[in-house]
Amino acid sequence: xxxxxxxxxxxxxxxxxxxxxxxWADHLDAALTDAIREGHHRLRLDCSQVSFLSSAxxxxxxxxxxxxxxxxxxxxxxxPSKPVSTALRITRLIDVLVGPARADDAVVALERPAxxxxxxxxxxxxxxxxxxxxxxxxTVGSAAPLSTGAFADEHCVTLExxxxxxxxxxxxxxxxxxxxxxxxxxxxxxxxxxxxxxxxGTNVPDYLLGTGxxxxxxxxxxxxxxxxxxxxxxxxxxxxxxxxxxLARLLAACLEAANARSVGxxxxxxxxxxxxxxxxxxxxxxxxxxxxxxxxxIRTRLTFTAEPxxxxxxxxxxxxxxxxxxxxxxxxxxxxxxxxxxxxxxxxAFRFRPIRKGPIDFAQTVSGLFEADxxxxxxxxxxxxxxxxxxxxxxxxxxxxxxxxxxxxxS
Length: 411
Fold this sequence. Notes:
Oligomer: single chain
Strand content: 35-45%
Radius of gyration: 23 Å
Shape: globular
Helix content: 10-25%
Number of helices: 7
Order of helices and strands: EEHEHEHHEEEEEHEEEEEEHEEEEEEHEE
Number of domains: 2
């Protein structure tokens, strides 16, 4: 099978020559996925020279039709050969996948952003949201017992009855401290969807979905929690194919767009890769030595991404970023990110799926990521500035940021 590709008026047309059977279906899937990863959401498949279409090939066509319809894109078969028409007619899909000029092939009119910023090879479309009050951000618990492994039942807090825009910290799912003790790990909760990375050696992330207040089973040793509406939605994208946007550069753009020194932020983005760390051992378990971070014990307690991880995935990240004034005291949970910013962000990585363009709904976008077998892992994001010896930082391609200024960080 041969596949050739061209782009006309924003529509990618792929011409397929040969058999579209079980063997070649994966090749077509890869070609269509590559087009979507490049940011194209309107695809047409010319099947005039396809000599055979099997159920495996039909499965690929249906998959991309559904996936692009979900994000207001379009996928259609044009010029079907007789074998293709016959196969689609038998399966009653010809009216779904094939037809004359289709309504969903038209360009969807998107709301125009309030302003656009282009800088260092990246474009940022800024949409003003309705929020008139800043986010309220507070610390829950304390990370102080981490270094000595002195966490006890009194340090365990349930997030029951809270409805934060987001919360990040060290937590687990369970009905008590004793139940969670061996599993406390990196936790991320956004718009009622909570994911965490158990530190019990299973290396399998878990999640809970809900609407409104969080479930009583969501327990933390400590976290940052932000409440309130966001003031801006920022859509970002690289301007040149094959390039990326570093996390520090994205966060600086968000601070500028919000015209604030401190912001709460949630990011849904197509990630080139992520850089961070996760707990390998629960900090609530007793230590053999006196310091959680002492060598060589730390090697059994923390996992660092010595090389970029979760390549070509979709990331859901959330956290707090600030550009402090000289001499200003900052929250203990914030760490350097880039040249002049401090922050604390966690990210959940998911299998790749395209993100709708233009203005998108916050809660709907987040909940749509959590489907069976999609969550890959949860990380505390790091900015490793050790040059050639370091892993660098997380790099993104395109996505959406919800941003809101923070008046102050309270306990």
